[in-house]
Amino acid sequence: MSDTRFDVLGIGNAIVDILAHAEDEFLATEGLDKGAMALVDSERAGELYAKVGSAVECSGGSAANTIAGLASLGGRAAFIGKVRDDQLGQVFRHDIKAIGVAFDTPAATDGPPTATSLVLVSPDAERTMQTYLGACVDLGPDDIDEDQVAASAITYLEGYLWDPPAAKQAFRKAADVAHAKGRKVSLSLSDPFCVDRHREDFLELVSGHVDILFANEEEIISLYQADEFDAALQAVRGHCDIVALTRGAKGSVVVAGDEVHVVDADPIERLVDTTGAGDAYAAGFLFGLSQEDDLSQCAHIGNIAASEVIQHMGARPDRPLKELVQARLGDA
């Protein structure tokens, strides 16, 4: 990949996460679907925020979390996403650039504020997200830097992009540019409820436009409306060059042509917050690919990255993932 400037370019919703603990009773009272992401307007976002206890603000967004993880591993990373020229937009820009990620998307000077996601963490570490997309809805084709896409070995897209209409066009433009330059396109399905909203479009994307697919067990079952995981695995075979499926404590399964790799989860001491586990896994896997590791090793690095993230609050690593991987595997 010596002819590229970036290992991975992520394109996604630029969001500031607001992390708070919440009991199951609170979720039920507020009518929230535990473990899912729902889109809300600014009024509902403010109403829920006022009802929760103390909270922590940190930069988030699915693809942005993956790109942050890739940078933590030592990868060459870039990100495209839309923020407003407000305080939270400045927080997001500072955080992602401070870890070495190229982020040059101009801030919006009018329109909705920077996006927020209220992440409610239950006692069992499950996360329920109430997301106000804000400025993200204005991400469009004009925000896609074609030179940056062409200079990236892999362009990584999040399924959540399919919710804002203009972002769909940005999504397709980036994929077309990447493939025209002989680069790879990767997609994360993001959330089973997101799959439910956009199943037909996702099926068409997976079969015709995506080279590397990431999904968890629920998402891949939802995509193919299968009865169980093995049936969904068989349904997706052959649709992409590489399919990486995460299964929580069961680890992950990677399918590529006739190859199937089953890789155990990395051991953890304490499960705290599952927010960002899939994002971190994708970061580790894509980093492994950028180093031309075999697929089993890529999955192992992904599992190590995910295990770090779920042992603390927040979706981004608390310690450099490069050090953690080297300690677990030697020179990855």
Explain the overall architecture.
The chain has 332 residues and is of the alpha/beta class. The chain has a single domain (6-329), classed as Ribokinase (UDP-N-acetylmuramoyl-L-alanine:D-glutamate ligase), CATH 3.40.1190.20. It has twelve helices and 14 strands. It has helices at residues 24-29, 42-51, 62-72, 87-98, 146-150, 165-180, 192-208, 217-224, 229-236, 277-290, 295-309, 321-329, and strands at residues 6-11, 15-21, 37-39, 56-60, 77-80, 102-103, 115-121, 127-132, 152-158, 184-188, 212-216, 242-246, 252-256, 259-263. A nine-stranded mixed β-sheet has the order 6-5-1-9-10-11-12-13-14. A five-stranded mixed β-sheet has the order 3-8-7-2-4. The protein is globular. The model has no long low-confidence stretch (mean pLDDT 92).
